[in-house]
Design goal:
Strand order of the largest sheet: 4-3-5
Distance between the termini: 37 Å
Radius of gyration: 16 Å
Helix content: 40-55%
Strand content: 5-15%
Largest sheet: 3 strands, antiparallel
Shape: globular
Amino acid sequence: MGDSADRPLLDDEAGPLVRPYMASGGRTAPSAALDLLTLVWATGRLGPTQLEAELGEVLLLCREPISVADVAAHMRLPAMVVKVLLSDLIELGAVGLLSPDPAVDTTDRSVLEALLNGLQRRL
């Protein structure tokens, strides 16, 4: 019994069985205004090994500019959880951000198709 208590709960198909709110410490609201199309990137001020596991994983994804939607897809976490984690990294100065141009209509079909195509290429 001691062995199973020491191992993380895993499902071969789903991966770790951890509730998404655990990754964000139970927080549900990001402190930064982030859109799914916001681009984020690592500033180099902190390395992934200097951070908690989830934050380090997010930071690794941010080596090159990447959208919030792409980070959520790679992490297999809800976008709101990823926004909370990215907010933490922004507050630490580990991640920079560039919000989408407010003149861009994010409900425009071509914008949404471009986002979908980008997500599909990454997966």
